[in-house]
Amino acid sequence: MSRISELVEELCPDGVLHRRLGDVAEISGRNVAPKDMGDGDVNIYSLPAFDRNRTPEILSGTSVGSAKTKLSDPAVLVPKLNPHIPRVWRLENLPDRAYCSPEFYPLKPDSTILEIGFLYHYIANKIEWLAGTVTGSTNSHKRLQRDDYLNLRLPVPPLEVQREIVRILDQFTQLEAELEAELEAELEARQTQMKYVASTLLDGDQLALTTSESIRDLCNINRGVVISKDYLTEHPGAFPVYSSQTTDFGVFGYIDTFAFNDHEAITWTTDGANAGSVFYQRDKKYTITNVCGRLVVKDDRLLTSYLYYQLKYRAKNYVSQGMGNPKLMANQMGAIMVPLPSIQEQERIISILGPMESLTADLISGLPAEIQARRKQYEYYRDKLLTFKELAA
Questions:
Q1: Mean pLDDT over residues 104-132, rounded?
Q2: Which of 153, 248, 326, 365 could form a disulfide with 275 if both were Cys (CB 3.0 to 4.6 A apart)?
Q3: Which PANTHER family match (predicted)?
């Protein structure tokens, strides 16, 4: 930071010129039909490619489905559509035969005045504001026009100042990416460890020697009822409704009544992409929807929390995939066989898996907050570094 202060004091102590973006950069490129791309491989910078780790798709020219914009010079790709998703792509070293989706504008800076990295960080800093200026029936239909970008006014400090700012912001970006990768790796390691320990405890040789019984013989089984979003709106309250969600412990919403008042129970998702997801309910007054089931243990040889761990790691194996709609219905759940070790052994298993699950849950909940905190810190410094006093006319 001190180096930037020194450069500003030396090179632009009275402020910097603020220029219209269209005066220091242009929207470049020309549209090319697939038939004119030839048979060789081409690099396609598309919206899906951005979302997949910012790696271009490599296709043969004749297999490209529609016209693309030819890229000949380094550029910053900025989005036309869905600007609420900040897809800003910095392309400094273009491969041969590079094209971008027409849903991007390629912004080519005048390199004698504007560093491409400075332009990239400036647009990244402005994209949220730009998204708020456009209209559309939904976020997915909001669209930015050429002049929305070209009419932006930006500070244009001397190139030496720009380069130092880019160096610092690139370093921030790299540190943020490394932190995110480190936290995600730690989470993955914890989850892998949890699965290994659970597999050892729940499917080990010792349990294989115990008796097993079906869930229908060990539990009372219930299905839920249809509850619409309108019903949630019309009957707000404090009692949770569990459904097919996997976030927020399966909570669909809250209403003013409840169907069950359980000391201990297990709920699970019966239909859809999340079929087989299992949740442990303790001292809860709640309701379940028609895509959710409920288990209440009726046999004193089985602990509910032990059954929860058995199903957490095994229920997905019983999900049927017929007709493209995954299901784990009540009859399928009821047929699952559960090993029944002694109560003491069940308690031992719970005492090991419970703390491990809590640690993993804490990491899962803390990961987004930690990443967001670092991102806010980066955005704060980015905004500070890109703000300059305007040179008086």
A1: 93
A2: 326
A3: TYPE I RESTRICTION ENZYME ECOKI SPECIFICITY SUBUNIT, TYPE-1 RESTRICTION ENZYME ECOKI SPECIFICITY PROTEIN
